[in-house]
Amino acid sequence: MSAARPAPPTAPATGRLRPMREADLNAVHALEVRAYDFPWSLGTFRDCLRANYACWVLQHGEHLIGYFLLSVAAGEAHVLNICVDPKLQGQGLGRTMMGNLLKLARQYRAERVFLEVRPSNPAAVHLYESLGFNEIGRRPRYYPSRDGREDALVMAMELLD
């Protein structure tokens, strides 16, 4: 991934997208903990930021309401994490962030984008399918779950001009 940051993606009407900063990490992690049963650690977010991954936050006023992290290398982008505040889900913010994430992947000249998603998250699966992602495989027992482990659906999208 290039050290130079591309132009910021288009900001959604209900918030402002901006690059994540070290000072955002506690708020990002707090949102992650509210949104997921098995959240990433604060250290994982810190490592992604320090590795110069594309880390963006969605801010509304003084409140952080979403974020995404994207890794790009060798013409491929990987959605590492995307999250919308649980109180604001279902309002199109995830779709808006994914649209901006895809624009960013194109700016980095990625030819395809990959992601993993839990089959138990049908809203996310539907969102990704509606954006043009297709299931290309499964990772058995990829995610921790209350019942042990859960498979991940592996999805991909070609970024064609």
**The CATH top-level class label:** Alpha Beta
- Under the CATH scheme, the architecture is 3-Layer(aba) Sandwich
**Total domain units:** 1
Give the proportion of residues in helices.
25-40%
SS-based class = alpha+beta
In CATH, what is the homologous superfamily? Gcn5-related N-acetyltransferase (GNAT)
Shape designation:
globular
If strands are numbered along the chain, what order do they take across the biggest sheet? 1-2-3-4-5-7-6
Helices, by number, come to: 4
- Biggest pleated sheet: 7 strands, mixed
Distance between the termini: 20 Å
Q: Strand-residue fraction?
A: 35-45%
- What fold name stands as the CATH topology? Aminopeptidase
Question: How many E-type strands?
Answer: 7
Structural features, described:
It is a single chain. By secondary structure, the chain is of the alpha+beta class. The chain has one domain: Aminopeptidase, CATH 3.40.630.30. It is built from four helices and seven strands, in the order βααβββαβαββ. The chain has helices spanning 25-35, 42-50, 93-107, 122-131, and strands at residues 16-19, 54-60, 63-73, 76-84, 112-117, 134-145, 148-158. A seven-stranded mixed sheet has the order 1-2-3-4-5-7-6, with helices on both faces. The longest helix has 15 residues, at 93-107. The model has no long low-confidence stretch (mean pLDDT 92).
